[in-house]
Each structure stands twice: as structure tokens, then as C-alpha cells.
Amino acid sequence: MFERLGEIYANKERFACEADLPAVMMWFPKQEDFIPPPPMDETSAEKMERISSSIRIGRNEINDILYGDNNGEQRVIRSLELKREAESLKIIFQECESDPSTKSGEGADKLVRCKAGLIEYQANINTLDPIKFASEMKHDNEFRIGLECLLIPWIDAMEQSSSTPLAKPTSFDHARDLEMECVKFAKEVRRANKLLAKVEESAKNLATGQTTAEQKIETQRLRFKKIAGVAATRVESMRDLLIRWEEMNMSKEQDALDFQPLTMFMKCYAVYFAAA
User: Fold this and answer.
1) Same domain membership, residue 152 and residue 69
2) Which residue in 146, 125, 120 sits closest to 62, CA to CA?
3) Residue 256, phi then psi, degrees to nearest 5
4) 172/250 same-domain check
5) Are the C-beta atoms of 248 and 261 separated by less than 8 Å?
6) Do 110 and 137 belong together in one domain?
7) Could you tell me the residue range of the domain that residue 89 belongs to?
8) Which of 16, 23, 69, 215 is buried most deeply by CB count within 10 Å?
């Protein structure tokens, strides 16, 4: 790295214009966002004032966490930060308690008010449950990923497969291969049905937006039922055709192809593959 810096200096390499500058060290924090550390000679009265100021800011933060438009990750991080800050305020308050100037007079009154405010603030802090917020985030991601990344793409692909008619079987072995494909398709439908059930369960655990989630699920549920109906019909049809085909083959060997098995087979074939 230092060799490269030497080359840049020696060759007097420069960017043609400021627009070509890389986005490195181009941002600096605002001056108004900088919070200076407390002075080393801070008095107990100033410490209690700082505690009261932190409590006022913290209450606004709590309301924003509980009722604001924040995602689960922000709630978890901000809740943990407030809990850690509350522990720091307790340590500062203990320093004030040990100060002789707070044992009587105006200092004692401020200490009582500060203690009451700190107790109330701690009760407010206890309403923040990072584990609950993390669980809400988990349920939200399970629903979103299950619906948008797994279920909907599967339904999109299976709608195309279910809308494509089966090939007309040209032999008994061909019909048996088609029946195996239909069974595989039905197994895929059963797995998707389990996924749909999991998505429905995760929607029930959502902290907000359950009605909207149910509407989205209902749309996909209707599409899924059509696919499931096609899968069930295909399995039943192919198995019925195989039975009729087997009966016709047996009749051909036993009684020189009796009229009834042949007629039943031809009817089934015509019904199942008339539009194929």
C-alpha cells in the first residue's frame, strides 16, 4: 500500500475532476449530532440534570419503538441500546447518592425527584422486549420468504405444467410412465400444500398486517386448489386407464379380445384424451 502511495506522489497522479473522486471519506458527521463527553469536574446537580435529560429523550425513543414505523431489526437494536443506557444512568445516580451534597437541602430534593424519575423510566424500559421484537421479525421473514420466494414461484411454474395436456399414451408401458409422472406431480402438490400450511401459520403470528397477509394467501390458495385438482384428476384418470388397458390385454390373451373390455378401454381413452 505504501509503495503505491509513493508511486502516486512521484508520478503526480491526479483525478481529472472532483466527480471522479472515489466515495471514500467524503462524508462527515454533522456538528449538531456530536454529543461531547461530560466534563471531568461535573457536579452531582449536573449529573442529575443529565439523568433527567436522558430520561426525557429515552421516553420519546420508547414511544417511537413501540408505536412508530420501525422494522424489527431497528426495534431490537434500539431497545438494547436503551437498556444499556439505563444501566449507565443507574451508575451515575449511585455516584450522586454517595455525594455528601445530596444528603440535605436542595440536593436531597433533586435526588428524590431524580430517583422517582429513574424508577418510572426503568418501568418503561422493562416494557421493551428485544426477544419479542426478534420473534416478530422472524415471523415476518418466514411469511415473506415462504410466500414470495417459495410458494408463488412454485405456483407460477406448476400452473404452466398443469395447463400443458398430457401426451397421448401410445402403449401400455408409455401409459405407465405417464402415470408415474402424474404421481410425482401429485407428490409435489402435497409438499406445496405443507408449505402453504406453514405460510398460513406464520401469517397468524404476524404482529401487524394479518388481514393483508390473509388476502395475499387467499389469492395463492385459489391458484393452488386448481393445480391440486388437476394433479388429482390426472392420477385418477391414468390409473383408471391403466386398469382398463390391463383388462383389455388380459382379455386379448384369454378370450380373443372380448367386446366389453375393448369398449370400456376405448371410452376411457376417448374421455381422458379427447382434447389432448
Assistant:
1) no
2) 125
3) 55, 45
4) yes
5) yes
6) no
7) 40-128
8) 215
Same domain, 80 and 170: no
175 lies in some domain: yes
Q: Per-residue pLDDT for the chain (276 aa), expressed as one digit of tens each?
A: 567 777 777 887 777 776 766 666 556 666 666 666 777 778 888 888 988 999 999 999 999 988 887 778 888 999 999 999 999 999 988 988 888 888 888 888 888 899 999 999 999 999 999 999 889 888 899 999 999 999 999 999 888 888 888 888 888 888 888 889 889 999 999 999 999 999 999 898 888 888 999 999 999 999 999 999 999 988 888 888 888 777 777 766 656 555 666 677 677 777 767 654
Domain boundary among 95, 128, 161: 128
Distance CA 35, CA 130 (A): 26
Whole-angstrom Cα distance, residue 71 to residue 65?
Answer: 9
In whole angstroms, what is the distance from residue 165 CA to residue 226 CA? Answer: 14
Length reported for the chain: 276
CATH of the domain at 97: 1.20.58
- Rounded to two decimals, what is the model's pTM? 0.63
In a domain, 4, yes or no: no
